[in-house]
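An instance noted here:
***
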Amino acid sequence: MENINDIITPGMIVRHPDRPEWGPGQVQSSINGRITVNFRHRGKVVLDGRVIALILVE
């Protein structure tokens, strides 16, 4: 089964499943499972895509 993080590319808008208070975030980069997202209410965060399955905002 494909992980949603496998299709995430820079510019996409996502949410963190465990941190809704961070609001939406724009993906800055996705390299070797490390996803950098700039969240509206948290700022820039580097996440391990093998551990956190981000939610794509349509």
